[in-house]
Amino acid sequence: MREFLTMLAFYRDTLGFAVAYASEHFASLRTSEGAELELHGGREKSGGEANHWFLHVTVDDIETVAAALRGRGVAVGEIRE
Length: 81
Fold this sequence. Notes:
By secondary structure, the protein is α+β, with helices and mostly antiparallel strands. The protein has 2 helices and 3 strands, in the order H-E-E-E-H. The chain has one domain: 2-Layer Sandwich (Signal recognition particle alu RNA binding heterodimer, srp9/1), CATH 3.30.720. The chain has a 3-stranded antiparallel sheet, with helices on one face.
């Protein structure tokens, strides 16, 4: 559960998503533009795998978004086309 709460805090506090609904293991978040993201906690590891997550977000101006994220302390890797 701690991992889930850490993820929720990151998306809410660092990335600025608004929490539309949250429980112990589920949260629905929204951007000011209306995009939605759902987080699900409690995913179990299988076969010795480490927990991993992937998020793909499409934006109109990647350079501006990357600069804003860096300003919030987020490590942003190389941007490739």
